[in-house]
Design a protein that fits this description.
By secondary structure, this protein is α+β, with helices and mostly antiparallel strands. Helices cover 56% and strands 8% of the residues.
Length: 707
């Protein structure tokens, strides 16, 4: 027991709260005498090509030039998939949806929230269970019929992938089981491999599908229909942080050696970047050191990593470390090492390989116990004199890019991944919103207001608010996806930062409000909304917290201004003073967007000019940057909404939501009229009536419809 007169430094204990400074690399940074401004300049110099080498992006033009390139954006909207490509990708995602259909026991998982099971269930709840079980049976039978009698396009995909009915007849997906057991079953990994989900972005010459961003977006959205953020996260991390860096920085030998193995499904690719002491400041605070051996033939690694996705299923791992080759300065570098893990490994095989790696100095933990995306094989890793040869046994270089250029590899790889967060969140939030509206029209509450939860004024406000946010996210994601394909050499690092911040924060807001509509059911295991809410917290903090990304998106435009003198500032301002691109928008919308952009750009230039005069650094003014970033996010979201409103096929209820978003921005007031909620409620009623009519036809009154 602690004595009162001893006055101990720590008189209580919080698990994991107090860190060892030496372990986390804290001491070496606290001792530095380097100024903050000098540190920022050094980081910018190291990052070099992280801003891209092609044409300026939309946001960079807006910040430094004061013009919103609406004509460029209009081109992206018109750059749609050809009818043939659309038919082909539609057939593929239909095949994926059949291959990733739910297992029968997903209905039993729903009972778990009620403290029940099929053999221990109350009579009334049993009726509802049987009703849900019948619904699952009908859905599964319909999918089996489609697989046994596929259309020409689906049949072509099955032939190209080398799969038949027998490979897909067994349903394998249960998101609640994955969440509970913190692992994806081996047979499901094999199914995903057979469906081609681990070679989506790999070029065709290496055995991949070679999908463009629009097609990839459609696939990621389809995977979200499983209600599993885990499955989407696995595919996304592997496709962007894993295999995509080879396209940017791999040499021919590396691509031809590694990518065919990944495409055929030997294993996944993981990227070991984050450390306990670094987080978003991954480059500056990284403490994993790779020392070049005296004979110059290998690197010896010491350090640790955490939150490494797909670690236990990776046949190849990319590792960010600082190389110590005897020079005065450490060199940020991405190394690679082949691992023994395979998608087909059983739990016993995985454990045997994990123990074997320990003897080599590579400690990979069992899957982390997280609250979200459970089962995505997140791991904590330590390196203890772990050796990576400069070249592997096949003579392939184990450095991705060049020694000292690891920062570029990281930022451009993360940039590719952030675009995928938009698709992930846009589709997840659609589901959260849709099921919450369906819930609101079926729950009976307060007859004085109409008798349904949906009739309550506050719930209508919730529905309108969710509708606006959902449609804006979808429009902005679609715009960014099109931008990547239309301008493949454009510097879109700022746009990807915008879409990550806009989509992830919006998705969290909608899922949280949807949870309020569900009430206590949002806390019950077995309900999709409970799983969605936990998974939607994750995107806001991974691959760079949103606050850091917001600073970064302004920094993309500020960087050239900081290099310019006062004369160049004035020249840039005057050059676009009278540039008012319309992008096919109405005069009033174009005028509002362009004036807002010029005001925003002027604020940034004033900030930059002040820095030049006072010798300060805008990149250190966090609060100012966050405020400016929020303005740019508004502009980008508004542009996406306005361009989406030009779509003549846009349903009326979606049009109402996007129009209200624009009205709210222009008036600077958040109004949520009930008319928008009523429009979405009407759509939900149509869907529910269709479902009821189908039930009546199929069930033939065998089951009582639950209301």
């Amino acid at each position: 027991m602690l004595q009162k007169d001893k006055n101990p430094v720590f008189n209580f204990y919080i698990p994991g709260e107090f860190y060892s400074p030496d372990y986390l690399g804290g001491k070496s940074y606290s001792d530095t005498s380097e100024s903050q401004a000098a540190t920022v300049k050094k980081l910018m110099k190291k990052s070099g090509g992280m801003l891209g080498t092609g044409q300026n992006g939309i946001i960079q033009e807006a910040i430094s030039g004061g013009v919103l390139r609406l004509n460029w954006l209009e081109k992206t909207v018109n750059d749609k998939l050809s009818p043939e490509c659309k038919r082909k990708i539609n057939a593929y995602i239909e095949l994926v949806s059949y291959g990733l259909r739910f297992k029968k026991d997903i209905v039993s998982n729903w009972l778990t929230g009620y403290g029940s099971s099929p053999d221990d269930i109350a009579p009334d709840l049993k009726k509802e269970y049987e009703y849900n079980l019948a619904g699952w049976t009908i859905s599964n039978d319909a999918a089996l019929d489609k697989l046994q009698n596929p259309g020409a396009e689906i049949k072509e995909w099955m032939n190209n992938l080398g799969i038949g009915f027998e490979d897909l007849k067994t349903p394998l997906v249960n998101p609640f089981e994955i969440d509970e057991k913190i692992c994806v079953p081996t047979e499901l990994f094999e199914r995903m491999k057979n469906l081609g989900l681990f070679k989506l972005k790999i070029q065709k010459e290496f055995g991949g599908l070679g999908l463009n961003q629009k097609e990839y977006d459609r696939v990621i959205r389809t995977i979200i229909h499983t209600y599993s953020g885990t499955l989407s996260g696995i595919v996304s991390a592997h496709s962007t942080l894993g295999s995509k860096p080879f396209e940017y920085y791999g040499d021919d030998n590396q691509r031809h050696h590694h990518l065919p193995k990944v495409a055929r499904g030997d294993g996944l690719v993981s990227f070991a970047l984050t450390e306990r002491g670094s987080g978003t400041d991954a480059v500056n605070r990284a403490a994993t050191i790779a020392r070049l051996s005296p004979d110059g033939k290998k690197y010896v690694l010491n350090g640790s990593k955490i939150y490494i996705t797909n670690a236990h299923r990776s046949c190849l791992i990319l590792i960010f470390a600082k190389v110590d080759d005897g020079d005065p300065e450490l060199k940020p570098t991405v190394l690679m090492k082949e691992l023994p893990f395979r998608l087909s490994d059983t739990e016993e095989q995985l454990e045997e390989k994990r123990q074997r790696l320990k003897k080599e100095g590579l400690y990979i933990s069992k899957p982390l116990e997280l609250s979200g995306i459970r089962g995505s094989d997140q791991a904590y890793i330590e390196f203890h004199n772990y050796e990576i040869p400069l070249v592997n046994e096949a003579g392939i270089n184990n450095v991705l890019g060049k020694v000292g250029e690891g920062t570029k590899v990281i930022f451009n790889s993360l940039n590719a991944g952030r675009a995928g967060f938009g698709s992930f969140c846009a589709e997840a939030v659609k589901h959260a919103f849709r099921i919450s509206v369906l819930e609101s029209i079926q729950r009976r509450r307060f007859d004085e207001h109409g008798g349904r939860l949906a009739d309550l004024p506050q719930v209508k406000k919730y529905i309108t608010e969710m509708a606006i946010k959902t449609e804006v996210i979808d429009a902005a994601v679609e715009l960014t996806t099109n931008l990547i394909d239309t301008y493949p050499h454009m510097n879109i690092i700022a746009e990807c930062a915008v879409i990550k911040a806009l989509a992830t924060e919006g998705a969290w807001m909608v899922s949280a409000v949807a949870g309020r509509v569900f009430g206590g059911q949002s806390l019950m295991k077995g309900y999709p909304i409970e799983l969605i809410m936990r998974d939607m917290w994750v995107p806001m903090i991974v691959e760079g917290v949103n606050e850091a990304l917001k600073q970064h998106l302004v920094g993309v435009g500020v960087k050239p201004l900081l290099k310019a003198g006062l004369f160049e500032h004035l020249k840039l301002a005057l050059s676009h003073l009278f540039n008012y691109e319309s992008g096919g928008l109405s005069v009033s919308d174009m005028w509002w967007l362009q004036i807002k952009t010029k005001i925003f750009s002027t604020k940034v230039r004033i900030r930059g000019a002040t820095d030049i005069i006072k010798g300060e650094s805008t990149l250190l003014k966090q609060r100012e940057l966050l405020a400016l970033a929020d303005e740019m996010i508004e502009i980008y979201g508004a542009a996406g909404a306005m361009l989406k409103l030009r779509d003549k096929n846009l349903p009326g209820h979606k049009k109402l939501a996007l129009e209200q978003f624009i009205k709210n921005l222009k008036s600077r007031k958040n109004n949520y009229p009930a008319s928008i909620a009523n429009a979405y409620i009407k759509e939900a009623e149509k869907e529910l009536n269709t479902q009821r009519n189908l039930e009546e036809k199929i069930f033939k009154n065998s089951f009582t419809c639950i209301s």
